[in-house]
Amino acid sequence: DLRGTLYDRIGPATLRDLLERFYARVAQDPLIADLFPGSRDPALWSVTLDKQFAFMSGFLGGPPLYHRQYGNPMLRARHLPFPITPDRARAWLACMQAALRDTPDLDQGTAAELHMSLTRVAMHMVNTETP
Ligand code: HEM
Q: If residue 24 lies in a helix (H) or strand (E), which one and from where to where?
């Protein structure tokens, strides 16, 4: 079904499922895992996941949970403390691609659309060329 927002087509339960798979991949990724607070204290992965869930909910056309709780996301500014090279953006997207593939409740069209929107945002986060 191609009607409605991406949020309507995915739904909160599948979105959470997707993000759990995504951060399980991120936690194992040699290029980006160390950037996350969860790499020092595993209990913090769920904090990161909750924020990403809140952000994606609004980003995909659902309730703007992140805005309500934290205000304007200013994503690029919030990522400036982390040196994000093109390789790291590609690693982030590869984790997402794998998570999309591994989430059975997502149809291929919806997964492809989501991947395309996230590619744009991920490339926008690149803030350094050198590792
Ligand atoms: C936070 C890395 C791309 C959305 C973070 C954090 C890191 C990170 C290390 C801090 C986590 C924490 O404090 O819990 C990266 C890397 C990316 C990337 C390496 C590669 C391009 C993206 C993209 C999005 C995104 C594409 C959105 C679609 C967020 C959000 C937060 C966040 C919403 C929470 C911000 C906050 O602290 O309130 N990211 N990120 N990130 N990231 Fe990314």
A: helix 12-26
What is the value of pTM for the model shown?
A: 0.96
User: Distance (Å, rounded) from C-alpha 91 to C-alpha 26?
Assistant: 8
Query: Judging by beta carbons within 10 Å of its beta carbon (0-12, 13-18, 19+), is residue 57 exposed, middle or buried?
Result: buried
* Pair 32, 88: CB distance under 8 Å: yes
Asked if residue 11 lies in contact with residue 99, where contact means CB atoms within 8 angstroms, the answer is no
| Residue 127 CA, ligand 1 centroid: distance in Å | 13
* Mean pLDDT of all residues in 33-55: 98
Cβ 32 under 6 angstroms from ligand 1: yes
Dig out the tokens for 36 from the structure. 């996350």
What is the CA(112)–ligand 1 centre distance, in A? 21
> Could you tell me the domains of the chain?
6-124 (1.10.490.10)
ipTM of the predicted structure?
Answer: 0.97
> Helix/strand/coil (H, E, C) string of 54-103?
HHHHHHCCCCCHHHHHHCCCCHHHHHCCCCCCHHHHHHHHHHHHHHHHCC
